[in-house]
Amino acid sequence: MKTFLDWSAYDTYGIGDAYSGIPATGGNYAKAVAVCMHSRDCQKTAKGVMCPSYRITGDRKHSTEARVAAFKAALNDGDGDASAVRTEPERRRSFLFERVFFTRTGISFARKHSKSAFADPRLDEAMDLCVSCKACKKECPSAVDMTLIKTEYLAQRHEVKGVPLRTRLFGGVPEWAGRHRPLLRLAIRLRNRLWPIARLAEKTLGISARRVIPEPAPQAFSHNAPMSEAAAARGEVILFVDTFCHHFDPHIAEAALEVLERAGYRVRIARPAPTDAEPDRPLCCGRTYLTTGMVEKARGEAKRVLEAFRGEIAAKTPIVGLEPSCLLSLRDELYSLGLGPEIGDLGKQLYLFEEFLSREHQNNGLRLDLKPSNLPKALVHGHCHQKAFGAMKATRKVLSWIPGFAYEVVETSCCGMAGSFGLEAEHFEASMQMAELALLPAVRAAAEDAPLIANGFSCRHQIEHGSGRKARHIALVLRDALAGVAP
User: Beta-carbon neighbour count of residue 342 at 10 Å?
Assistant: First the structure.
């Protein structure tokens, strides 16, 4: 079976492991699917993120385990890699498991040829409520990476059925914003303000009329002012301004820049390489393309990033990002795009804003001059990827630097927006149900003047939509806490 992502990391999986049957076709992709050992942690509703769709439905067929079973069934009659063919006893055990599982969950699955299996509507049903939160990679004992499995599934589905227009619109935000920013801003403003246009977009494209689509800021992020040598005692750092901060929330990038400069760093904004075909279009991690299954587009963006940072890999210059899903995609998903060993070296230089500050505080004596806070206890919501990669520890540490600043990290699953998921008409209700599990009740219970902190772009918009209150990025909180900065 041809795959769109590089699954070679799973090449040795299944050797000596007690697998529940690797599918007969699919090669290393099938092995990635088969790491599930049926612990059913994805069907728990205690602390943690996994699995948001199971949490709102209570239905086993919307769990990671059910999705694994669906993929196994889809792959088992294909014509893939002969090296992955199982023994007859393994086939029988796997078939028995699938039959029992699908009977109990109510999913009917006909065996099909692998090339058309990815377009089967029943596989679509199994994946329908997956929000690519990455919690399964962290919280599942077997580390099932359903986010990447879903990306491959969508790419395979697009190969058979074509890429839907809505998918191209949502996935192509980096290019729309980078090449046609005025047109994008005008189109979104008209859609948000004129109800008939919103209704038409829902009817023709499936974009929920009940949502306000985030609008690009009047001015994109721009910073060309050089920094004096004397003010850069701590050396140089590169600020990676992602698509969302660049075009939608430039004030966040400006705040991060001010904090880093006040901390004593010479900040250089990440720019495309001089040889880039689009030197004026900002760099992009490719996240929107990955989540929509547009792998070749994602690979193109990743190549731009790698080329831009090629010289920094040897210099080991720290690269700091602001949007969790973007920076952590660079640190994780780039491995799956088959771009070579340099990706591993680059990953060691990538930090979220708060991760970098925390690391410098611990290892290199960084201290920020921060004024005392007299604000009510703040509420902090962690992005799913922050939780999946263990980055919330750095968030807690950095917030603790502000004298008198009290905060509570609310125990939440996914906010429910999940990129474009909450904008899709058929997923609006599910999106709001995810938010209502814990996040929105906690926001409503917080004091009216209590700061709300959420680093995720989608998270902030979900909070505002569901509560009418605005959450802020940690860079803004730290900037406002700097001594000498007016409130």
Answer: 14
How far apart CA 454 and CA 460 sit, in angstroms, is 6
- What is the CB-side half-sphere exposure of residue 483 using CA atoms within 13 A? 9
Inter-residue contact 473 to 455 (CB < 8 Å): yes
Indicate the number of domains in the chain. 4
Distances (CA, A) of 173 to 170, 246, 288, 308, 458: 6, 12, 7, 21, 14
In a domain, 65, yes or no: yes
The pLDDT-based confidence of 15 (bands split at 50, 70, 90) is low
Residues 6+ apart with CB under 8 A from 162: none
The greatest distance separating any two alpha carbons of the chain, rounded to the nearest whole angstrom, comes to: 73
The whole domain housing 378 covers 369-481
Q: Left, alpha or beta for 16 (phi > 0: left; psi -120 to 50: alpha)? A: left
Does residue 87 register a pLDDT over 80? no
Strand partners, 238: 268, 319
According to DSSP, the residues that pair with 482 across neighbouring strands are 370
What's at 338, amino acid-wise?
G
Residue 402 CA to residue 481 CA, distance in Å, equals 7
Q: Measured between alpha carbons, how far is 363 from 358 in angstroms, rounded to an integer?
A: 9
Length of the chain: 487
The candidate with the shortest Cα–Cα distance to 260, out of 325, 351, 346, is 351
My answer on whether 355 and 374 are in the same domain is no
- Which residue has 């058979």 as its token pair? 160
Q: How many helices (H) and strands (E) does the chain have?
A: 25, 7
pLDDT (tens digit, 9 = 90+) per residue, 355-407? 999 999 999 899 999 999 999 999 999 999 999 999 999 999 999 999 999 99
Q: For residue 81, which of 30, 32, 119, 155 has the smallest C-alpha distance?
A: 30
